[in-house]
Amino acid sequence: MRKVFVIAATTLQEMLREKLFLIVLFIAVVLLGLSILLGALSFSEQQRILANLGYTAIEIASVGISLFSGAFLLSKEIEKQTLLLVLARPITRDQFLMGKVSGIIILNTMLVLALGLVLFFLLGHEVSFFNHLIILASLWFEAMIVLSLVIFFSVVVRPILALLMSLVILMAGVWIPDLQFFAEKSKDVFFINSVKVVSWLTPNLYRFNWKSYYFLELGVGAQDVIWMVAHSCGWILIVFVFSCIIFRRKDIV
Amino acid sequence: MAILEVKKINKTFPGGLFEVSRHVLKDVTFSLPEGETTGFVGSNGSGKTTSIKCMLQFMNLDGGEILFFGKPLNLEAKKRIGYLPERPYLYEFLTGMEFLRLHWNLVQDSSVEFVSRAHEALKRVDLFEARDKKLRKYSKGMLQRVGIAQAIINRPDLLILDEPMSGLDPDGRGLVKDILRDEAKRGTSLFFSSHLLQDMEELCSHLVVINNGTIIYDGGLTFFMKQYKSLEDAFRSAKEQGGAL
Question: Which residues constitute the domain of residue B200?
Fold first, then answer.
């Protein structure tokens, strides 16, 4: 466990010192600022616009960190062969991968919490902190699923391709209900069956897309929260195990 | 006793769509005597780096066996090994001290001795003054030296260095040779690769020669030097004798 922590701490250090994190943070802050400005333009819907845009800003930042860092962090290590020195030490490849992923998870958690706290104060004290936390958790789990996918793909293919493939799965996961709607409208059996297959093969992210003000006001049912945690953990675990299996057998040329 | 035994290892790189597969290591067999400095020499592309990568399990073997300290490589054995790759691309966002701390923490369970050992290693590679500089500000020679510092900080029993002098200026080469001599005096078994026989003459007592993925010589350096004028001469003789010398 100590070795995983050592790699995680180094990864965190790397990300905080690299420009990528600052760029993503800057984008998130600009989006948050934009949501305040847009909210101020509206008289009656100020808080609604602020919440909707604010959560979207946090989502973009956390998913962005997952996508970019996940795609490039491991491939950079392999390409530059910096991992040779580390893997020559008494550490398994699973521990190395776990450490790398943990570093990104810690950074993502810090980012979601910090931006979430800012948004909470911007929204004012009338909103439920508990509901706000549940929405933040949904954004965090979404980013974690994306991270596990991009790490898996980056072990197998080149980073840009890994990033694109993860992005496609993310979009499919969010847009499944729309696809199902269009498939049913088209009455095309092939289209309907294809959408069914896509919904089995992609994480059902639409089921915890709670970024709207509606969920902040009324909250989310306990059953839905449990489903989100179970579904996300299942996906993350399965994809991570596959990543480890492939990474263990990978030749570092 | 042999500190490392490489037995009949084979490695083939699979071909792509328009590429044929390449059999890069062919029944490679050699052993390293304990406490000696072994040179691993061969021309560019002869299989030196691939052999080292297979030894340290960075690449999977197609066949054969590698034993460190009499056993297949495991985490315990890795604690006793120091390694420096051919092109030491290091974590450039770290300072010299942070880089050594990372490698210390991956081997040791306690940080008690770290500072004194890191200072000692940095002084030996002449980088003590630059210890708090980021590695991205180091020159190529400095990176090579800090790479050596991470390899020796845990006082390994076996030091494996892949082309440790490649690309260094004469001063840098001299310094690396001095460090290797010091390590050998301390009792560390050394294994380092180079494509220059001259490097071997100055440092080694034992020599392993590889040509086109096949070991053509595994024995004493003095005997080898008496028999052949140069590496090319040895390669020619090996070819005439059907593979090995």
Answer: 2-80+158-240
Q: Are B109 and A2 within 8 A, CB to CB?
A: yes
Judge if B175 and B65 occupy the same domain.
yes
Q: Locate all alpha helices (DSSP H) within chain A, ordered by sequence.
A: 2-17, 19-41, 46-80, 82-87, 93-123, 129-156, 159-186, 189-201, 213-218, 222-249
For residue B227, what are the contacts with CB-CB under 8 A and spacing of at least 6?
Answer: B234, B237, B245
Q: What is the pLDDT of residue A24?
A: 79
φ, ψ of residue A77 to 5 degrees: the values are -60, -40
User: What domain count does chain B have?
Assistant: 2
Same domain for B102 and B12, yes or no, is no
Give pLDDT, residue A212.
78
Give the pairing of strands B81-84 and B71-72.
unpaired
Class of residue A50 by CB neighbours under 10 A (exposed 0-12, middle 13-18, buried 19+):
buried
List the single residue in A6, A81, A249 with the smallest CB-CB distance to B105: A6
The span from the CA of A49 to the CA of A47, in Å, is 6
Look up residue B135 and give its two tokens: 């590695």
Contact of B45 with chain A, judged by CB distance below 8 Å, is answered with no
pTM above threshold 0.80: yes
pLDDT at A83 over 80: yes
Residue A125 has pLDDT above 80, yes or no: no
- pLDDT over threshold 70, residue A43: no
* Cβ-defined contact of A14 to B91 (cutoff 8 Å): yes
Whether residue B206 has pLDDT greater than 80? yes
- Residue B243 tokens read as 């593979």
| Residue carrying the six token digits 């067999």 | B29
Residue B70 lies in a domain: yes
